[in-house]
Amino acid sequence: MQNTLPKIWLDNLKVLDIAFQPIINIHTGRIYAVEALLRNYKKVGFDSIFALFDQVYKEHLLYSFDIALREKAIQKFTKIDNFRNIKLFYNLDNRLFEMPDFSNGNTNQLLKKYDIKKDNICFEISERHEISSDCNMEQVLMHYKDENFCIAIDDFGVGHSGYKLLYDSTPDVIKIDRFFLTDIEKDAKKKLMVRSITHLAIQLGIKVIAEGVETKEELLVCKDIGCHLVQGYLVQKPTLNTDEIVKKYHNIVDLITHDKREESKYKIDTYLDKIKPISIESKMNEVIDYFKKHPDIPTMPVINSNNEPIGIVQENIIKEFLYSHYGKSLLLNDGTKKSKLKNLITPCGIADINSDIATLIELFSNNPESVGIILTNNSKYYGYLSARAIITLMNEENLLFAREQNPLTKLPGNTMIEKYISNIATNQDSYLLCYFDLDNFKAFNDVYGFRNGDRVILLFADILRKHLPQEFFKAHIGGDDFFVAVQSKGEDEYLYIKKILKVVTKFTQDAKDFYSQEDKKRGYIVSKDRDENIKEFPLLTVSASIVLIPQKTKNRFSKNINEVLSSQKKVAKHEYNHLSISTLL
After folding, report:
1. Tens of pLDDT along 444-462?
2. In this structure, is residue 1 part of a structural domain?
3. What is the pLDDT of residues 314-336, one digit of tens each?
4. How many domains, in total, are found in the chain?
5. Distance (Å, whole) CA 213 – CA 178
6. How far apart are the first and last CA of the chain?
7. Which of these, 171, 238, 180, 177, lies nearest to 206 by C-alpha position?
8. Angle at 222 (CA atoms; ends 216, 224), nearest 5 degrees
9. Closest CA to 339 of 548, 146, 193, 574
10. Which residue segment(s) compose the domain that 433 sits in?
11. Are residues 274 and 372 in the same domain?
């Protein structure tokens, strides 16, 4: 396309510049892509990027301007070290199709000029933009998708048509809007919504980018939920200097290193089928020959030229065509350049090999039609986890959980507590730990019997579940001893301590219902102590021994933590509010 922009806009293009912001793998810190962002728009007289694009739209120059801007972005993209192994995310204005000079094939010409593969470009379309009745977002999406470009929906969740687009068009990528990620670690509603969006997208074979992440806590929640990629100030601010775009972001690697589950990765690896994938560009006779040579493989992963998984092709779908003479001829007719394999691909869940086993099981369980999950390593195809393998993993995890939980309360037991404290000892984050011990429980058990004793234990476990936030690790040491812990920031500690005090108060009130009217009125029961002496015992209460572990505390060995918790338990029993607090130095 010969660009016929007026001189004023050609001059503006010389002033405008492109900044890049990295998009990285949330599990490894390795770069996956960069997003191109327009800069210097104020130098050419506009208060915002939107105002600039509105003006070229009004002058009916939007498409010509955008093509020139694409070339500027692509040209600068080639200055990035390792650019051939990453993607360029480029934002499209939804009004392009309204321009009188719109034509096909211009992006392909640019890619050919700069020797870039089509799989290295991803066009972003935003739900935020107002769109006219003549050209809707879905039309733009489908045009570029039909041209086999990667498509991303930006700002997902803030527009009105997001879920309809997922249903109708199935983009390759969605970027979850910053609104849903701000303080997500403190907001159960946001966490639930992001988990729902992420898992639905993964089941449809869509990659998920957590966009605008600014804190470590936001990053770790998104990672645990199952997001594949992350972008935001925590990783790196947009930069005009291409030398500042690196292959690996060690600031993120440091944050996630202690959170990695190497044991989980090794376990998943043992169940993985290392099925050789087939390229989307393969001829149909190659696909048919593959299934003939491998009768034991009913499902074959499909990848693009960058070794990124696209979906799966199933033998039973191919057979449906082969049983029909017309269908077989249709499959094997290579008279068209368009890939026939593309129309036979079934979406498949895609997750990273470093994902938590529980996340993989949840992804599979939530989709009754799932035949398996494709696993990637640094966004590249790694292997295939079949439905049978996932079910086996699920059964093993259930057995393991059953062995490691307390049989009465079903809370994690001592093995899980030891693992949790061991993890604290190997990282530098801040934590709040609490040891609960029911007061006068033995006397109650002796007078009212072990069945009522069990009911009291279950009452306390239920209070922990209901009154401590989800981020708390809640466990049952055994008998009348419990343990809870939470990763904290300094400003959170006071709120967490208040919640623990509420647990103490709630149990003290509710436990009274297990006593007779006479004992409640009297305020004590009579029973024998450990030396067989008759004594008066107050009604049930609970003592809480809290230990604060500040960030970068050096003496955070498991032995030290256990000793402080144990010794403080005795102190808490003599405090008027049954609470003692100390800080590990």
Report:
1. 999 999 999 999 999 999 9
2. no
3. 888 877 666 666 555 656 665 55
4. 3
5. 7
6. 69
7. 171
8. 100
9. 146
10. 405-583
11. yes
